[in-house]
Specification:
about 15% strand, about 40% helix, alpha+beta, 4-stranded mixed sheet, about 120 residues, single chain, Glutaredoxin, globular
Length: about 120
Amino acid sequence: MMAIFYLKSCNTCTKIIKELELNSKFIFREIKSTPITIQELELIHDLSKSYESIFNKRAKLFHEKKLKEQSLTELEYKNYILENYTFLKRPVIISNGKTFIGNSKKTIQEVKKHLSE
C-alpha cells in the first residue's frame, strides 16, 4: 500500500505533497472530509507500533481537553484519533511497508530517501 493521510487545509501538508512529488500510485486520503477508518488506523499502528507516536499533541483539542495532564493509554490515544481527525499527526505516509509520521525535516528527508530507492 502506498498512501498519504493529510489535511488539505494544512499548508504544511500541501507543501510536503508538492515537495515529494507523490505520483498516482499513492492513495491520497484527506482525513477531514473522509475520516480515517479503524482499519486504516490499525494498519498505521501495525507499522508504527504505537498509537502515541501517531497522536498529535499539538492539536488545539489536546490543550482544550487538558490531555497533557493525563496519563493516556494506547487505547485512549486510538479512540481520540478515531473521534477527531485533528488528533492524527500529519502527514502519515505509507510506502512499501514503511510508515513516516509527521512533518519534521528529518522525516521528510527519510521519505525522500526511501522513495528514491
